[in-house]
Amino acid sequence: MDINTLVKLTSRAWSLNILALLHSGIPGRQAPLLAATSAGRTAFSASLDHLIQLKLIERNPGHGHPLRPEFRLTPAGVDAAAIAKAIVAAVPDDSKFKLLRKTWTVPILALTGTPHRFSMLKSNLMTITDRALSSSLHELEDVDWIKREIETSVRMPFPIYRAVSTGLTVNQAVGLPL
């Protein structure tokens, strides 16, 4: 999975969770998935539609009722679901899991397996704003998923960021070829 696909995938709050649940064997009907995620109906529906648009899930032909369809993973979705399950499993704590549902958390962690400067992160995440990147980095620092160090070996010191602890586990679960 490349970084652009990861950014698109994580742009809806419940996408990773839905994929992980389908990978775990939860029935592909809306009611069991909704109950397992504990998401609101609107956010859940938006995430489900988003996954269909990304062609990671599809309606299971010949199964379900038109008003209560059944969904299944596409071949591309099977790979994404395995990654999503590993990411979700890396953060079993419900209070910290909320951070995974934020749009930029997983893409930032995916890039910071090795130390990166702010400008390098921004250039790799082309659509992110300075404010969103800065805010996300501060949140990840606060929960000790990212470590900020100052590089002083050059004339103009600059901060570098790298994933640590749970952040590194999420980074390894994503396994981006960088």
UniProtKB/TrEMBL annotation:
Pfam families: HxlR
Coiled-coil ranges (or none): none
GO molecular function, one term: DNA binding
HTH hxlR-type domain location: 100-155
InterPro entries according to UniProt: HTH_HxlR (IPR002577), WH-like_DNA-bd_sf (IPR036388), WH_DNA-bd_sf (IPR036390)
Keyword set, alphabetical order: DNA-binding, Transcription, Transcription regulation
Record flagged with keyword tRNA-binding: no
Protein name: HxlR-like helix-turn-helix
